[in-house]
Amino acid sequence: MDLARLRARLKPPGPVIDVHVHPLPGRGRDATLREAADDLIAAADRAGITKMVLSNLGRTWDTAPPPAAFRAANDDALRIRDLAPDRFLAFCYVNPAHTEEALAELDRCVGREGMVGVKLWVAVRASDPRVGRVAEKAVVLDVPVLQHVWVKAGGNGPGESTPDDLAALARAVPHCRLIMGHLNGGGLRGIEAVADLPGVSVECGGSDPEAGVVAAAVRRLGTRRVLFGSDVTGRHFGTQLAKVTGDGLSEKAQRRILWDNLARLLPARAGVRPVGDESPCPEDRPQ
Amino acid sequence: MNRVDFTAFCGPYPRRPIGQEPAELFRRLAGFGVDRVFASRLEALWFENPHDANRLAESASDAPPGLIRTPVLDPSLGTWREELDRLAARGPLPIVRLHPNYHGYSLADAATALAALATRGVVAQIVVRVDDPRRQHPRAQVPDVPPATIRETAARHPKLKVLLSGASTSALNALAKDLPTARNLWADTSQADGVDAVAGLMRGPWRDRLVFGSHAPLFLPEAAFARVVLDLDDASADLILRGNAVSLLAESERDRR
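Structure tokens for the assembled complex are given below, as produced in the milestone run.
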């Protein structure tokens, strides 16, 4: 197999929307927003990524950002989005510990600036009632919430959610469209934690390109609740795509994961529509 | 030789049902044009006597010719020299794999064994990590081998060929400045993740020292190839997938003569 054929083989079977992209710090702490955008688009083109959803944590990734910091991060996300609106969408990053300011930021970024989701990281666990208030606001604004989740062998950080925290949030705010970030970080036990919560989807960004995890999620949750995410720039688009394209799934299931499933979670104003048909996937049959 | 994978594993994996036996593993990688796969048994990580896993590998009857059974050597076992003699007596021994973190020794403590490998012209593949420590079993955690200690080992044993395996992109970047004086140090790409990661390494001193590692079947081979071929031109990708491997193996073979 020559390299041209090898590259072609690694391309995804259809359009791809990546729900988990961090644009900064990019190639270095001093990268301009234009450079960050250009680098992302170039790397996405090489891997076959169609659209990227930005969650900007700023240049220093403060784990408990004050309101001024998450506002500034969102300002940068909006500027990058507007550099290439055909390639970028943006989620609004907030710290629920500053609840009133977080809710006001959602009004600004989602309500007025056209962001299409909410990103929550490691400031407050998802089981905390303050996160519940943010999730309730997301319901009102008709957008999904992407929540970072991990189960770390050495223990999570104090504000770092486990799948059980996310499950508690899903039960407290059942109408919220929740996305459990880092499928591999939550692992197979994380899949079990949300299996009976149909409002929760999982995304596969971050972590190593481990075999068998996305396939396990599809077996347990079906083909409709698994989304593609990369966690770029710490990861490579291609290594993360491989979790979907290399794990033995049918092409139809891959297309759902890579595009349609997130398209159904985003508000209509995102302009991302499902492209697949509704006929069953091989994976949808009882196993 | 077409494409060479220096970092693959056979046997059951204790965390998920994804382990592969030699024929299945080789078939999967051959689908990407790989015709030589260096694979050790995963049992070697946890067996009380890791050398028992070498004998397990030797007893497998389904190993295709292109799958090179790569033995694991544990220099903390009193019989490591006997095992090395036994392995060498079986035929060409281009490479052995070492897991100081799983087997509980320091590379400084392994100096005698490493010197013996240098004398015999055997490449020492020293593995930084098999699993992300965050993803390990909470009651069986194995920290990474610090890549800098592997660099120091290469400096202490200038005649030993050292393959640094499973280092992160940031670790490889940090070591790049040492390469002009560390002519006996190579590295694999098995855990070099991030946007433009391998391409960035190939723009610097690692260019003629990077070899391909898939980490299959624990990692998906598609990922291992993507990080190499999507960002590099053909000449650079070929260096990683074949050219640098040919150089390393040729030097090792010359040393063994």
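The two ends of chain B are 20 Å apart (CA to CA). The domain at 3-256 of chain B is CATH 3.20.20.140 (TIM Barrel). Further analysis is deferred to the final report.
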